[in-house]
Amino acid sequence: MQKLTERIDDLKQRIAAWGKRIRRYTERSTRFNQNRLFQSDQKRLYKSLERPIVSGTGPAPNQADMVAFWRSLWSEPVNHNEGPWTEVVASQCASITPMDPVIITPDDVAEAVRRAPNWKSPGLDGLHHYWLKGFMDMFCE
Known about the structure:
The protein is mainly α. 64% of the residues lie in helices and 0% in strands.
């Protein structure tokens, strides 16, 4: 009986070792392929990284419930407590001279977009510079 449990433990350890080895191999293979794709075609790499991850397979919420929920939050008037600290801050900021307005021309935007690399990571808008360059070409002419 003891030999059987030792054999089972041995096999479990072998399975765990093989699992770790396979996991290391797949991680290394993924890294290698992503590095190679980055060198050859950055667009495809970023597109593959941006694929949406499906996170929720439950039923979609009812539209009427959603409208009622947000309406209950945003339609109620709110009275904020304007404490005396607001007057203190306003008096401290009164002596600050306002900054001159910054005027950004379409040429400034076109120049900044022209210099940007095509497929580097996008900003908060999610647009790669490649698409912004096409947008500037289309609308600046």
